[in-house]
Design the sequence.
C-alpha cells in the first residue's frame, strides 16, 4: 500500500543501454518509495520487478547497444503507482 506523501508525482529518466545504469533506476525507486512511504515488503517487490524489467529492456530490447536509450517513467497518485519502461528494440 502506498500512503500519500507527495500526491501525483511524475519522474522520468532516460539513459544509455548499459547494465551499470540500473543504479539510476534503483536510486529513483528508492526516492519515490521513501517519499510515498511504501512498506518494506512492497518496496522489495517493486525494486525486483522494475530492475528486472529495465534489465530486460537493456539486454533484450536494445541488445546491450549503448547508443540505444531506455526511458523509465514513474507516476504516483494516492494509493497507486504506474511505471512505463520503453526501449528502442
Sequence:
Amino acid at each position: 500500500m502506498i500512503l500519500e506523501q507527495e500526491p501525483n508525482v511524475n519522474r522520468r529518466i532516460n539513459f544509455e543501454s548499459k547494465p551499470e545504469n540500473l543504479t539510476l533506476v534503483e536510486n529513483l525507486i528508492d526516492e519515490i518509495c521513501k517519499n510515498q512511504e511504501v512498506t518494506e515488503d512492497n518496496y522489495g517487490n517493486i525494486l525486483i520487478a522494475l530492475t528486472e524489467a529495465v534489465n530486460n529492456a537493456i539486454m533484450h530490447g536494445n541488445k546491450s547497444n549503448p547508443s540505444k536509450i531506455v526511458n523509465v517513467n514513474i507516476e504516483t497518485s494516492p494509493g497507486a503507482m504506474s511505471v512505463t519502461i520503453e526501449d528502442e528494440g
Q: What stands out?
A: The helical segments are 22-35, 40-61. The longest helix spans residues 40-61. DSSP finds two helices and three strands in the chain.
